[in-house]
Amino acid sequence: MSHKFKVILLILAIIFAFGITAVILSKDSKTWNLEDYKSQELNWRDCYGGYECSSFKVPVDYENVNSHSFNLKVLRHNALDQKNKLGSILVNPGGPGGSATFYAYNAEYILSDQVNRKYDIVGFDPRGINESGEIRCLTNAEEDAFLSADASDGKAASVAELVAISKNFADKCAKSAGSKLRHYSTLEAAKDMEILRILLKEKKLNYLGKSYGTYLGTLYAALFPESVGRIVLDGAVSPNVSTRDQQLAQAIAFDKALNNFIESHESLKLSDIKELLSQAATDPMKGRDGRFANESTVITAIAKNLYDSNQGWNDLSKMLNQAIKKRNPKKIFKAADDYNNRDSNGNYYSNQTDVSIVISCLDWEEPRTIEEMTLDRKEFVKAAPVFGPYLNFAGLPCKFWKAKPQLPGIPLKNIETSPILVVGVTNDPATPYKWAQDLTKVFTNAKLLTLDGDGHTGHNQGNKCIDSVVDSYFLSGKIAQEPLICAKSGT
Predict the structure, then answer these.
(1) How many domains does the chain have?
(2) φ, ψ for residue 174 (rounded to 5)?
(3) Is 241 contained in some domain?
(4) 197 inside domain
(5) Beta-ladder partners of 88
């Protein structure tokens, strides 16, 4: 199956933004209650040549439901065999902040022909993302500065600079969001997903969540266990791990992925990569547009390519050889800009950087003080010499957040649902395999499907073994009882 995604043209995006805003309420009430939100009708319209688009409203605050709402965009790719359709599958690509409408737009690439024949593939952009009440905190120039900030050396001056820019980010987000600042959480997105299930007239929610999308699926299952249908959670986030331990585990996993990459590329050495990062700190390469490839840019470019052990690793090899041997940062900027959704003109065509932090600060508590974060650097560096110094302060903006986290309020364990399929990759750099094991144990009726290999997420990466189990589950609802382990070869 091809991994190339189709791109939505700008003119169509404009149509999507302004041409499908109508929703029909079953009641004409000045102040909406929760039943009003649940009794909307989706007004589907043709869009993008072969798709359908609509929108629906959700309350800003589920604890104080009124007419203050987000308008969430939805896109549907209709099942090819409508006569024998099994229902709808909601999809989410992760992030947080990835566009699920864009993901569903690529239905023919993200799910097999067999699944596309039997299911409508539906994506909605959660609150704050894309055209669903998009929140942007920084200008393009401010985003450049924020993403370039770096305190990996642990020096007091560097930490102070990072603290200042993190505080500025939190202040700008508070100003941009206003009274909605506390209401971009995954907890609320899960409740929004239940409203969409009702509006789609589906008895059960079928769902494919990748990476962060697994946390959205987990919270949905915890809140609405009776509504769970066939759910696949691929690239699992462990819901009961602290922010600090998340960052440390990711640093270790990225270091492991980098070492695995180096083992398969004899021309590159870890010492060369460390030297590249050291030079980026003291004598960064200059790009054609005048930017400098500092440490933050280089580590982002490396991480981006470690997500994909096929094309990504090939690109990483070319990028490192170009940078190390020729001191040419062209491919470094290309990879980092792709990861950060920055175009060649310096415009950020997506708000994912901003909204991912907004969501994360509402989803997880960061109880550590700045002093404790600084002291943790020693452990991070020892456990993950390359990535540890950069992930140690990843949660710093949340220390200055002007809204309390929206935590589930219910224990995320022993969740009783119909069978759920969790997919984990043994050398996943972004969501360590242990998290998949942990998530499987959160449910009383979940099965772990393991890919013994590299890269982020296992489904739709060209592995026939993994894809066949996922297809069988979606098409039949059944999961084999024996251990499900797939080799990198696809067997």
Answers:
(1) 1
(2) -60, -40
(3) no
(4) no
(5) 120
Q: Is 319 exposed, middle or buried (0-12, 13-18, 19+ CB in 10 A)?
A: buried
Read off the pTM: 0.94
As a whole number of angstroms, the distance between CA 441 and CA 436 comes to 9
The Cα–Cα gap between 138 and 176 comes to 9
Top pLDDT among 421 and 13 is at 421
CA distance 155 to 168: 20
State the Rg of the chain over Cα: 22
Q: Can you tell me which residue has the tokens 């489904």?
A: 459
CA atoms within 13 A on the CB side of 481: 0
- Cβ-based burial of 119 (10 A; exposed 0-12, middle 13-18, buried ≥19): buried
390 in a structural domain: yes
C-alpha distances (whole Å) from 304 to each of 44, 65, 231, 290, 299 are 36, 40, 27, 22, 9
Residue range(s) defining the domain that contains residue 301: 140-180+251-400
Is 309 inside a domain boundary? yes
Q: Are strands 205-210 and 45-47 parallel, antiparallel or unpaired?
A: unpaired
Task: Quote the CA–CA distance of 79 and 84 in Å, as a whole number.
Answer: 9
User: What would the 3-class secondary structure string for the chain be?
Assistant: CCCCCCCCCHHHHHHHHHHCCCCECCCCCCCCCHHHHHCCECCCEEECCCEEEEEEEEECCCCCCCCCEEEEEEEEECCCCHHHCCEEEEEECCCCCCCHHHHHHCHHHHCCHHHHHHEEEEEECCCCCCCCCCCCCCCHHHHHHHHHCCCCCCCHHHHHHHHHHHHHHHHHHHHHHHHHCCCCCHHHHHHHHHHHHHHCCCCCEEEEEECHHHHHHHHHHHHCHHHEEEEEEECCCCCCCCHHHHHHHHHHHHHHHHHHHHHCCCCCCHHHHHHHHHHHHHCCEECCCCCEECHHHHHHHHHHHHCCCCHHHHHHHHHHHHHHHHCCCHHHHHHHHHHHCECCCCCECCCHHHHHHHHHHHHCCCCCCHHHHHHHHHHHHHHCCCCHHHHCCCCHHHHHCCCCCCCCCCCCCCECCCCEEEEEEEECCCCCHHHHHHHHHHECCEEEEEEEEECCCCCCCCCHHHHHHHHHHHHHCCCCCCCEEEECCCC
Segment 395-434, tens digit of pLDDT: 999 999 999 999 999 999 999 999 999 999 999 999 999 9
CB-hemisphere CA count at 13 Å for 377?
16
| Digit-coded pLDDT (tens) for 290-339 | 999 999 999 999 999 999 999 999 999 999 999 999 999 999 999 999 99
